[in-house]
Structures are given as C-alpha cells and as structure tokens.
Specification:
Blueprint: H1 19-41, H2 66-97, H3 102-106, H4 109-134, H5 145-168
C-alpha cells in the first residue's frame, strides 16, 4: 500500500507520544495500588466507609456489618473495574502509538515517568474529590485522618513531580533506529 510522505505514520516513540498512554496507565495502576493495598490488604477503608460523615448524603454502609461490607465491597469492585478499564485503555493507546520494538518503550524513562505522573494525578484527584470534597472515605479514619489524607495528597504531588522529572530526562529514540532504539546505559 503506497502512502504519501505527508500521510506516513510516524513510528518513533518520542517521550511526548508516550504522555497520554503513560498517564492513563498510571491512573489505572495507581488506582489498583490504592484499592489493593488500602481497601483489601490493610482494610483501612472502602469506597463508602465514611458516608456517615460525608458531605453529599450517601446512605451509611457500616463496614463492620455483613450488609455494609457487601455494599462497600460492591463499590470497591466498581472502582477496580474502572481501574482495569483505564489500564486496558492505556495499553491500547500505547500499542497504537508504538508500532515497532515495543520492548525499548517499556524500558524507557519517558514511559515510566508518565506512568508515575498518572499515578500522582490519581492520588491528587481521588484525595481531593473523595477525601476532601465528598468525604465518602479517608485514607485511615480516626483521630489522625487529616494527616493521612494530607500524606496521600503529598505522595501524589511527589509522584507527579518525580515522574515529570524522570520523563523530562529521557532521550528521544526511534524503535526503527539501528540497535532497536534501545535506551542508553543511563536508562533514558
């Protein structure tokens, strides 16, 4: 199939072309870390744990009762389904943008930097919306919940800043280049 020079699809994977898929992947993966670690393993909260103190009038589902835990688990599952969709979408966008030598992209500081930015954006959005504005749950309820919520936001800001700096230091490379566009020894 012949294409004109203006219509040819670029095959390079410059750090900028990895921005959207990296951020979407980071949002999904960050949500999975939150859901698996804080909701399931540590059991510090569920999606509707603090609805007895929320700011929007959601019915309280006490996580210490069977029916309350069932409803919280249902909403945790919906949350995980959204995270799963974000990861699938991020992979689809990444796959569409990188057509050759995908292994070099997975080793790229650019991709991992944008993934960290996405994870940080997840923390900031979720922390501001769910913990502060809606009040439907907190990182760890109790006398120090404000500190836990603030630490969650601070971690989000660190992830955004660290990820941005990581991807900014990445060198552009082309998967079509000789040597497969492999990153240099400095990890770029």
């Amino acid at each position: 199939m012949a294409t004109t020079a203006g219509m040819a699809r670029p095959t390079s994977a410059a750090p900028r072309s990895l921005q959207l898929p990296g951020i979407i992947l980071g949002v999904g993966l960050g949500g999975f870390v939150d859901g698996i670690l804080l909701h399931q393993l540590l059991q510090w909260h569920h999606m509707l744990t603090s609805t007895n103190h929320d700011r929007i009038g959601v019915k309280y589902y006490n996580p210490h009762t069977v029916s309350g835990l069932e409803m919280n688990t249902l909403w945790d599952g919906i949350f995980h389904a959204v995270c799963w969709i974000a990861v699938l979408l991020g992979l689809a966008v990444l796959y569409s943008r990188v057509t050759r030598n995908r292994r070099a992209v997975w080793a790229s500081r650019a991709l991992w930097g944008w993934i960290l930015v996405g994870w940080g954006l997840f923390n900031l959005f979720e922390g501001i919306l769910d913990h502060q504005i809606l009040g439907i749950h907190h990182v760890h309820s109790g006398s120090h919940q404000g500190w836990w919520d603030t630490a969650f936001l601070f971690l989000g800001a660190l992830l955004v800043a660290g990820g941005y700096l990581l991807q900014r230091g990445a060198r552009s490379f082309s998967p079509d280049a000789p040597g497969g566009g492999r990153p240099s020894a400095d990890g770029a």
